[in-house]
Amino acid sequence: LAGSVHCEIALDGYGRRVGGLRITYSDDVHAFGHVRVPVGVLSGGAGSTVLLVAGSHGDEYEGQAIALGLLHGLDTTSLSGTLIVLPALNAPAVAQARRTSPLDQVNMNRAFLGGAPDGPSAAIARWVQAMLPRCAAVIDLHSGGRTAVYADAALVTRVADEALWRAHVAAARAAALPVVQVLGASSASTSLNSAAAAQGVPMVAMELGGGARTDRSSLAHGRAATLRLLQHFGVLQASPPATHAVQHWVEVSGPEAAVVVKAEGVIEPLVDPGTPVARGEPVAILHHWREPERPPSELTAACDGLVLAIAARGNLKPGDHAALIASLLEEPLAHD
Ligand SMILES: [Zn+2]
């Protein structure tokens, strides 16, 4: 069973320190063992603290590369505060390039606020939650992983607290990624976003490409957006200027968002992530390799919106999503 967490490095004090969180864990393989979750801290002295997380899902690599790159690449003299980096949060899942932990089968982004049974994932989530009160903001880097390719997007939660909602909108603007996805009432209640919101800590998540590879364009977008957020939250003194403003604000509003495959087949996408589509517009063709007599089927968008993600796998099974169509929103607080 998992329980205590020992952090090998001091989180307070000037400079750069890198080590691990040791989570006690015992099973058939690890009799007196522990799970080691990489952790680093960079501090330029007094100021705000920001928590940067990647690798919640082990098959999402863009964020891991960005977080590890910044951990070693940022000069502490360029910081006016502290950055705590967890570049491979679900380390057991990262080790096996899986979405969920091979130790307890938990989806790390459903393990917060008591969402997971006792185990390594729940212990990691508790440690992160205990860090939140000292943080001015949280940045959590995701991608489409093995199953999807996303439009590069910032994600913020719509919250009832007016000041926190304004902070989320301002941070999403500052990130200046092409798309902002607003997470509404239907978003997971046991995600890191929900844990941060519950403590009143502003948080921006990102979706950066995907497809179980590291896309150079998504990496560049994500790295620049992370640096802009670190400056926005007061931890970094300067960041690369935004070349574009946010182009689309979207929300995944209901079940019609998913373009679902009804038969097994090879998918041929007709649209790229980030493209606006109208209801009824074809977004993919399904080729029925198992029923070669059957002509290809056209899959259409069930609502107007923006292609937020497309399937990353070529061979889809019934129930798989060929695409995810998000509804376009008016820009929130546009006249502030
Ligand atoms: Zn993820």
Number of beta strands = 18
Q: How large, in whole angstroms, is the Cα Rg?
A: 20 Å
Helix-strand sequence: EEEEHEHHEEHEHEHEEEEEEEEE
* Termini separation: 50 Å
Helix share bin: 10-25%
Regarding quaternary structure, what we see is: single chain
Report low-confidence residues grouped into runs of 5 or more.
none
The chain-level mean pLDDT equals 95
Describe this protein with a few key phrases.
alpha+beta, globular, binds zinc ion, four-stranded antiparallel beta sheet, 6 helices, five-stranded mixed beta barrel, 336 residues
Describe it.
- By secondary structure, this protein is of the alpha+beta class.
- It has 6 helices and 18 strands.
- A 5-stranded mixed beta barrel has the order 7-8-10-18-16.
- β1 (5-7) and β2 form a beta hairpin.
- The chain is globular, with a radius of gyration of 20 Å.
- The termini are far apart.
- The mean pLDDT is 95.
- Bound molecules: zinc ion.
In short:
By secondary structure, this protein is of the alpha+beta class. The protein has six helices and 18 strands.
Strand and helix layout:
Layout: E1 5-7, E2 15-24, E3 34-43, E4 49-54, H1 62-73, E5 82-86, H2 91-95, H3 120-131, E6 137-142, E7 148-157, H4 162-175, E8 179-183, H5 192-198, E9 203-210, H6 216-232, E10 248-251, E11 258-260, E12 265-269, E13 276-277, E14 282-287, E15 297-300, E16 305-311, E17 315-316, E18 321-329
Parallel strand pairs: 4-5, 4-6, 6-9, 7-8, 8-10
Antiparallel strand pairs: 1-2, 2-3, 3-5, 7-9, 7-16, 10-18, 11-18, 12-14, 12-17, 13-16, 14-15, 16-18
Helix pairs in contact: 1-6, 4-6
Bound molecules: zinc ion.
Residues 56-57, 60, 142 line the site of zinc ion.
